[in-house]
Amino acid sequence: MASDRVILVTGGNRGIGYAIAERFIADGYRVAVTARSGEGPAGALTVRADVTDAASVDAAFTEVEQQLGPIEVLVANAGVTRDMLLMRMSEDDFDSVVDTNLGGTFRVVKRASKGMLRARFGRIILISSVVGLYGSAGQVNYSASKSGLVGFARSLTRELGARGITSNVVAPGFIETDMTAALPEATQAEYKRNIPAGRFATPDEVAGVVAWLAGDDAAYISGAVIPVDGGLGMGH
Q1: Which domains are present in the chain?
Q2: Is residue 71 a contact partner of residue 112, using CB atoms and an 8 Å limit?
Q3: Are 203 and 18 in contact (CB under 8 A)?
């Protein structure tokens, strides 16, 4: 049965990752989350992992496999930002964001794919951003890392598509999280004016799309980019 499947959400201790883990728990899946600190929601197995370190990723996967079983659905959500204008951005500001957001996805997907290939089943869901396709001043590093996930998912689809493994990208827009709540009121109002829906999304609205991609109804969808952005990016 689909809901018995084992799910791993990276960066599941806050924000969108936390909401995704909560949704899968509510749907009856067996859920694990990775976190560098903090805990995932009640009912999830939290394992420590640093996605920039392949040995750390391997240890986390091994722990989940021992406690819950082979990972059938992977949600690569862990990400960081280091926003600043290009002229002020250091090599490290660029490299560290790309290494976490894009390199981290490479490490977790590579490790997850071993079990998925054996099972001839897998759902790989990469959490990108509207900024990856729409662009954003001050986010050259973040935007490049998030747009890189599109090419990653599409190449993966061509490699693994015949093995019962799908690979898709979800591109959230502005979401009601601690990060957006900290923005000045005037800034929030300006962002909302540019969003056709006129509001930010809730993390649950992103989680619902991820849950659908993980389920049987989306078995024939792969290499897709699904925006959850209230029309902001207009499906770039």
Answers
A1: 2-225 (3.40.50.720)
A2: yes
A3: yes
Residue 18 is among the residues annotated as catalytic for this protein? no
Vertex 51 angle, CA 45 and 54, to 5°: 105
- C-beta of residue 100 within 8 angstroms of C-beta of residue 78: yes
Show pLDDT as tens, one digit a residue, over the chain (236 residues). Answer: 566 899 999 999 999 999 999 999 999 999 999 999 999 999 999 999 999 999 999 999 999 999 999 999 999 999 999 999 999 999 999 999 999 999 999 999 999 999 999 999 999 999 999 999 988 889 999 999 999 999 999 999 999 999 999 999 999 999 998 777 877 888 888 889 999 999 999 999 999 999 999 999 999 999 999 999 999 988 66
Match 């071993």 to its residue by tokens: 114
Spell out where 1-140 has E strands: 6-10, 30-35, 45-48, 73-76, 122-127
With contact defined as beta carbons under 8 Å apart, do 116 and 160 qualify?
yes
Catalytic hit among 18, 29, 134, 142:
142
